[in-house]
Design brief:
With 63 residues, the chain is α+β, with helices and mostly antiparallel strands. It contains one helix and three strands; from the N terminus they run E-H-E-E. It is 25% helix and 41% strand.
Amino acid sequence: MQYKIQQIGARFSDKGIVNLEKEFNSYSSGGYKYHSVIEIQKTGCLGIGKPSITYIAIFAKEE
């Protein structure tokens, strides 16, 4: 199984949602299916700085 991970963030403009839809449709055309969305915490460079919360979408494709 192959996976694609797409950082999708947490806030979107109308244009951002349309662009995300295009990317997801592109994955689907490539044989990937939606798997899940999870919340992650990203740290700054070298683990320094205030961490931020974001979301990633995971897509899977059978080999």
